[in-house]
Amino acid sequence: MAVRGRLGLVVAGGTGVAVLVAGCSGSGGSGELASNETATVTITPGNGSASVKPDSPIEVKASNTTLENVTVRGEGVSITGKLSADRRTWRSDRTLTPGASYTVTAQSRHDGKPATATSTFTTLKPARTLSVIDVTPNLKGEKVGVGMPIMVRFNRPVADRAAVERVLRVTPEKPVEGAWRWIASDQVIYRTRTYWAPHQKVRFSARLAGVPAGKGVYGTKDIDQTISIGAAQITTGNISKHRMTVTRDGKKLRTVPFSAGNGQTREYTTTSGVHLLMEKASPVKMISPGRKKGDLGYYETVVNYAVRFSSSGEYTHAAPWSVGSQGYANVSHGCLNLSTANAKWYYDIMQRGDVLKLTGSDREVEWNNGWSFWQESFADWKKGSALS
């Protein structure tokens, strides 16, 4: 036992307990310690603890004294907590990093006398861990369209989806309601009720470190990413009328004639519905779907200034061979054929997540064909949340 002056400090080995010992008798009625009464600070996990579960809380409790301050330092994520109104208890407010070492320091005071208790422990290093392997959008310096979803992919299937979804946060500068939907066991997507307001920053964060993802799997580290929303670029087109109009922040930029799918087969019918622009490339090789060389209708064509808007092979692209049909007839294999000048212009201004609304065909785009998530009502979209 170590005693300092009339009110001493004892740190009991392996327990994380600091004990203030009375060196003289007192009345006990004015906050002073009575004879044989001790003031203690207990830290859990105790000093020297090993393989502590990452989702176990850190707790500090004071008896016959009050807490002045509690700090946690370690190799993993930063840990903060909340002190009770009576300053007798403190509890961490998040999970811990797996396989890390932490030191808790608790400072207390009784009758003007300070004392410090510490506890150093290590957390469990699990055999299997969960981490984020991709967040889209993720291109450096990229501005995205107002329809852009946030797509998160994990390194393994998530057993406890609710636990993981609870630590996912989306914070736009201009608030709008949104919801997560699990489209696969390892992928979850965030979509808003209405389009993002343009020209703002959106912060995505995942406090994943230490989160129990089910079946003994724990999250490894937090993720924090800022997404830039650009101008509201909206394209509306009528397939039967062979034209589309492009607006930016509500102002018309250009009306573009096109030639859409000829409709002879389902795959040659351009889809109606709300699409998002997904990517662009120049050149792109186009190959007939479901056909091989020698089959009737097989084709293999290289096109320039291609902007994808579905996973089933629909693009806007330059088609100088069909300029005479653009604005008048649908003769393509499902893409929107544009003049070279218009295709390049659209290619140059596009942002991933820009909205392309098409009407006028009898083939509706599926909600999970590419990024056509706006085909779902928001009420139906929310049903895919693990927290709904």
From TrEMBL:
Pfam families assigned to the protein according to its UniProt record, in alphabetical order: Big_10, YkuD
Keywords: Acyltransferase, Cell shape, Cell wall biogenesis/degradation, Peptidoglycan synthesis, Transferase
Enzyme active site: H317 (proton donor/acceptor), C335 (nucleophile)
Domain of life of the native organism: Bacteria
Pathway: Cell wall biogenesis; peptidoglycan biosynthesis
InterPro entries: Big_10, LD-transpeptidase, LD_TPept_cat_dom, Transpep_catalytic_dom
Gene3D superfamilies associated with the record: 2.60.40.3710, 2.60.40.3780, L,D-transpeptidase catalytic domain-like
PROSITE patterns listed in its UniProt record: LD_TPASE, PROKAR_LIPOPROTEIN
Domain annotation L,D-TPase catalytic: ranges: 233-359
Protein name: Ig-like domain-containing protein
